[in-house]
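Researcher: Next entry in the queue.
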Amino acid sequence: MSSPSAASVPLVPRPAALSALRRAAPVLPVVAVIALLGLPGAPDSGASPADLACGLVVLWAAVTTVREARRPLTRSAAVVLGLPVVGIAVAATGAVTPGDGITGLARYLQVFVLFPLAVVLLVRDRRDARLVLWSLAGLALWQGAVGVHQFLTGTGASYQGADIRAVGTFGPSDVMGMASVVACGVVALTGLALGTRARRRRLVAAGCALALLVPLALSFSRGAWIATAVACGTQLLLAGVRRAVTVFAAAVAVAVVLVGGLGVGAAALQERLTSITQVTDTPDQSVVDRYTMWAAATDMWHQHPVTGVGLKAFPAYRDAHASLALSSGSDTGGAGQAYRRQPLLSPHNMYLLLLSEQGLLGLLTVAGSWLALLVCALRGLRRAGRARDCALAALGLLLWQLVNFLYSDIGGPSTTLTAVCFGLVAWWSLAGGAPTGPGAESGTR
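Model: Structure for this entry, 445 residues:
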């Protein structure tokens, strides 16, 4: 028999999964960076796999934009994202060594300029944004599960003589890493739950957010707790006061069950919570060190008010400006790593780090860019429409970062997460959630 002609062969419909994969292909590099944050990292290993992937994503975004021959940014977006370059570049020229200037310049540009710009270029519409947000949630659930296992089995980081502190795959050398990931997951899921109209997705997002409160509590990170409460509280109020009261009651109930069921961990949690309001009474050494470094950073700024002491120069000037109350470092150990003394290389306050190393010029340009993003995000929230879930999530992530920067700064493998969050915020604030490429979804507003 003769074979049928090509014209008579019925067309096979493309599988839905393959079609969805092709549609999401532009944003998958961003998802890959998030996935790499779930890999265990070695202490003092320098650039992490996620950091290296960030560079490739930036390059890919540039190539894609040139290939499609489209205008990548509005004038306002270019100004807001380019503003930090001024203060960072000037501070890099004042670094103690050329190597410090180059590495510091690369790190700041990666986190606050280049990767956020790449996210703006690669995220085309609200479906892409949701994919990134759910990827953040997935990373948070993974790190949170590892953290809970560490607490239950006594294999976490050392805390008050017991290896119970949940640190995920980041280890004790980046003790804030898991707390940051889990907190951002809670904020992202809260925005998705409050803004979506689909009941099933709303329930899944709310359930996952409540589940993540357990590892967040076990991180014993006071700064992450405060930032999460502020961000989620703001999201709830923006979504409606009645809903805010209902969710707040549910969160309190979960917290009561959590603390009551932790046994020996309940005492540690209670002590950690109490210490938030007693930092001026009988603070522990970690609080004393933090206040001492804050004072040292302020003193550096007083002596170098305009351009600061230079990028990555805080450790070199620290001892000359700190009081004798400062300890030689913090003790870290557990989670598979031996005991070691961690040097205090920053003031653990991003705003004071900017002031001390970059002066008023750096604070006005870098933090001024963040303020511009916040204003644009709030303005866009009023006309978000069906993209309200993305708007609430992006606004919450920015608020979390801005509050958390009062107690932390950039450094360590988890810093890549900061770049991802600022990228999502920049997409919503500057691209307005509107389609930015061929075949993008229409009606994103």
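Model: The longest helix spans residues 350-381.
Researcher: Noted, moving on.
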